[in-house]
Amino acid sequence: MGVEGKDRVKALEAGAAALSGHFGRNVARLRQASKLSLSELSERSGVAKSIVSQIERNETNPTLSTIWRLARALDVTIDDVLGAAPDDAFVEKSTRGATPRLASADGLCRLEVIGWIKTVDWLQWYDFRAEPGGELHSDAHQRGAIECLSVRKGALEVEVAGAVEVAEAGETLRYRCDRPHVIRNRGRVVADATMVCILRAATME
């Protein structure tokens, strides 16, 4: 199952929030490194002091024009103010409330997008839970895509192109997901698993 439609929008919103956080921290770091006050950066950039302060505290989503003005005022590129500082420790936290959640058509399967938004086009991973009787039907992904399903609790059945296999707790199934596929919980207890979808895997022949 890839992130598509409205679910993709939710994942992108989470990524946008993370990017905004990088921007605010970088503006504060670069301003302080240049020994500029909020008022001085405001004057140089033409961005209101109150807005600069809100950006540094990650309390607003700046426009592209604002990003460009602040980058020019700090004498750096847009990439410099949007990306992580090369020498900084990288620790990014996604709260439970900000984690995108998806559901199967029958409402019995739930996925939480725990992967990094920057890899969503080629690598996705999820926390997967299926109630007894739950089925997750997925369309085919791009050619060569592979899915890995590691079961932590219960048992799950995977069907791909007529082939059916079952994995129990502690076991992992890897299968082509470039064709329609189904994950089922035929057991009597809730099943939990980690699902990783590699969208740019080597083509299998």
Structural commentary:
By secondary structure, the chain is α+β, with helices and mostly antiparallel strands. It has two domains: 5-82, lambda repressor-like DNA-binding domains (434 Repressor (Amino-terminal Domain), Orthogonal Bundle), CATH 1.10.260.40; 99-198, Jelly Rolls, CATH 2.60.120. It is elongated, with a radius of gyration of 22 Å. The model has no long low-confidence stretch (mean pLDDT 85). It has helices spanning 5-33, 38-45, 49-56, 64-73, 78-82; strands spanning 101-103, 109-113, 123-130, 135-138, 146-153, 155-160, 163-168, 172-176, 181-184, 191-198. Strand 1 and strand 2 form a beta hairpin. It contains five helices and ten strands, in the order αααααββββββββββ. The protein has a six-stranded antiparallel β-sheet, covered by helices on one side. The protein has a four-stranded antiparallel β-sheet with strand order 4-9-6-7, with no helix packed on it. Helix 1 (5-33) packs across helix 3 and helix 2 packs across helix 4.
